[in-house]
Amino acid sequence: MDPLPNPAPLASKLRNTLVRYHSIGDGEWRVAKKTKDATVWRKPSEEFSGYLYKAQGVVEDVTNRIVDHIRPGPYRLDWDSLMTSMDIMETFEENCCVMRYTTAGQLWNIIAPREFVDFSYTTSYEDGLLTCGISLDYGEVRPNFVRGFNHPCGWFCIPLKDSPGHSLLTGYIQTELRGMLPQSAVDTAMSSTLVNFYSDLKKTLKT
Predict the structure, then answer these.
(1) Is 145 helix (H, G, I), strand (E, B) or coil?
(2) Is-contact 119 134, C-beta < 8 A?
(3) d(CA 137, CA 149)
(4) Where along the chain do its domains lie?
(5) Digit-coded pLDDT (tens) for 59-99
(6) Pick from 36, 21, 15, 38: which is nearest to 133 by CA?
(7) Calpha distance 61→51 (Å, rounded)
(8) What is the reported pTM?
(9) I want to staple 145 with a disulfide (CB 3.0 to 4.6 A). Which of 33, 99, 115, 137 is the partner?
(10) 196 CB neighbour count, 10 Å cutoff
(11) What is the per-residue burial (b if ≥16 Cβ within 10 Å, else e) of 81-100?
């Protein structure tokens, strides 16, 4: 188990990585799934043998409220159907923490429940916000869970200039689920999970 990293350089590196992903040209992405709520693309990850996913959709709400529902905090467990528990293990500053969370089994439990320990950082970006994270090898793995690993991930939330009550939410996700899994099952689950993320988020913001 590694000691906790110094948060400032890790946060800076993470932000720079996400901004770089955000500048990848459209031609490098291939559409993986499209619904009325969101479009999901993918491209081979530079970090591991799976894919980097990009998801994008317009969400009807202001940027701060949307990001408050995504980043670690009291809202996330209320609406995210995939997440089954979340604990803040360490807090460095108001916008920077280490959290441990668990996810439900997927695809008729072909994908068993997973546990993740992530460093999370939220910062301003252009007129909106970026909330991003990366997994750490920290803390004991709990029984009955496989420890997954999130390579640099994040969500950009930017208000629409011509419609300030709406925001463009763009996510970059590359999750290594680990364990003995067929890659095709992982790819199916990832695209569906991201689309469901948008529909669940929109429903909760309307209530």
Answers:
(1) coil
(2) yes
(3) 9
(4) 7-206
(5) 999 999 999 999 998 899 899 888 999 999 999 987 999 99
(6) 15
(7) 29
(8) 0.94
(9) 115
(10) 16
(11) ebeeebeeeeebeebbbbbb
In angstroms, rounded to a whole number, what is the distance separating the alpha carbons of residues 175 and 45?
A: 10
Half-sphere exposure of 1 (CA within 13 A, CB side): 8
Task: Give the SS3 label for residue 48.
Answer: coil
Q: How confident is the model at residue 189 (pLDDT cuts 50, 70, 90)?
A: confident
Identify whether the C-beta of residue 203 lies closer than 8 Å to the C-beta of residue 79.
Answer: yes
How large is the average pLDDT for residues 10-29?
A: 97
Specify the length of the chain in residues.
207
Which residue from 169, 177, 126 is spatially nearest to 147, judged by alpha carbons? 177
Structural contact between residues 88 and 99, judged by C-beta atoms closer than 8 angstroms: yes
Contacts (Cβ under 8 Å, ≥6 apart) of 2 = 136, 137, 138
Does the domain made of 7-206 have the CATH classification 3.30.530.20?
yes
CA-based nearest residue to 156, from 121, 131, 133: 131
DSSP 63: H
Provide Rg for the chain, Cα atoms: 16
Is pLDDT above 80 for 183?
no
Beta strands in the chain (DSSP E): 30-34, 39-44, 51-59, 83-93, 96-103, 114-125, 128-135, 146-147, 149-150, 153-160, 163-173, 175-176
pLDDT averaged over every residue in the chain: 92
